[in-house]
Amino acid sequence: ALVTGAPGYYGVFLIDALLRLDAGLRVVCLVRGRSRDEARQRVLDALRLYGLAPGELSTRIEVRSARGMCC
User: Fold this and answer.
1) What residues are paired with 37 via a beta bridge?
2) What span, in angstroms and rounded, lies between the C-alpha atoms of 67 and 50?
Protein backbone atom coordinates (compact mmCIF):
# COMPACT_ATOMS: atom_id res chain seq x y z
CA ALA A 1 0.00 0.00 0.00
CA LEU A 2 1.27 3.49 -0.82
CA VAL A 3 0.56 6.20 1.74
CA THR A 4 1.20 9.90 1.27
CA GLY A 5 0.90 12.28 4.20
CA ALA A 6 2.14 9.53 6.50
CA PRO A 7 3.39 11.77 9.34
CA GLY A 8 0.04 13.57 9.48
CA TYR A 9 -2.91 12.80 11.73
CA TYR A 10 -4.85 10.78 9.16
CA GLY A 11 -1.70 9.12 7.79
CA VAL A 12 -0.58 7.54 11.06
CA PHE A 13 -3.98 6.00 11.73
CA LEU A 14 -4.16 4.73 8.14
CA ILE A 15 -0.72 3.10 8.47
CA ASP A 16 -1.70 1.50 11.78
CA ALA A 17 -4.96 0.15 10.36
CA LEU A 18 -3.31 -1.24 7.22
CA LEU A 19 -0.58 -3.01 9.15
CA ARG A 20 -3.06 -4.61 11.55
CA LEU A 21 -5.48 -5.54 8.77
CA ASP A 22 -3.12 -7.73 6.76
CA ALA A 23 -0.13 -9.49 8.32
CA GLY A 24 1.68 -9.70 4.98
CA LEU A 25 1.15 -6.12 3.86
CA ARG A 26 4.05 -3.70 3.45
CA VAL A 27 3.27 0.00 3.64
CA VAL A 28 5.32 2.38 1.51
CA CYS A 29 5.29 5.99 2.68
CA LEU A 30 6.32 8.96 0.56
CA VAL A 31 7.63 11.50 3.08
CA ARG A 32 9.51 14.79 2.81
CA GLY A 33 12.98 14.70 4.29
CA ARG A 34 16.62 15.33 3.55
CA SER A 35 17.34 11.62 3.81
CA ARG A 36 15.49 8.34 4.04
CA ASP A 37 16.49 8.03 7.71
CA GLU A 38 15.13 11.48 8.54
CA ALA A 39 11.88 10.74 6.69
CA ARG A 40 11.49 7.37 8.44
CA GLN A 41 12.07 8.99 11.82
CA ARG A 42 9.31 11.54 11.07
CA VAL A 43 6.84 8.69 10.48
CA LEU A 44 7.88 6.72 13.58
CA ASP A 45 7.78 9.86 15.75
CA ALA A 46 4.28 10.67 14.49
CA LEU A 47 3.06 7.13 15.23
CA ARG A 48 4.41 7.38 18.78
CA LEU A 49 2.90 10.84 19.25
CA TYR A 50 -0.59 9.35 18.80
CA GLY A 51 0.13 6.27 20.91
CA LEU A 52 0.58 3.97 17.94
CA ALA A 53 4.10 2.74 18.66
CA PRO A 54 4.59 0.25 15.84
CA GLY A 55 7.02 -2.13 17.58
CA GLU A 56 7.61 -5.14 15.36
CA LEU A 57 5.20 -3.73 12.77
CA SER A 58 7.77 -1.06 11.91
CA THR A 59 9.72 -3.62 9.87
CA ARG A 60 6.85 -3.55 7.36
CA ILE A 61 6.99 0.23 6.90
CA GLU A 62 9.14 1.36 3.98
CA VAL A 63 9.80 5.08 3.75
CA ARG A 64 10.88 6.86 0.60
CA SER A 65 12.28 10.32 1.00
CA ALA A 66 10.67 12.89 -1.29
CA ARG A 67 13.51 15.35 -1.54
CA GLY A 68 12.86 18.56 -3.38
CA MET A 69 9.14 18.66 -2.69
CA CYS A 70 7.81 22.13 -2.20
CA CYS A 71 6.40 23.28 1.16
Assistant:
1) none
2) 25
CA dist., res. 40 & res. 45, Å (int): 9
How many of the other CB atoms lie within 10 Å of CB of 50?
11
Work out whether strand 61-65 and strand 27-31 pair parallel, antiparallel, or are unpaired.
parallel
pLDDT in tens, 26-51: 999 999 888 899 999 999 999 999 99
Q: pTM of this prediction? A: 0.85
C-alpha 29 chain-centroid distance:
5
What is the edge-to-edge ordering of all strands in the sheet holding 2-4?
2-4, 27-31, 61-65
Cβ distance 21 to 30 under 8 Å?
no
| Contact by Cβ (8 Å): 36, 44 | no
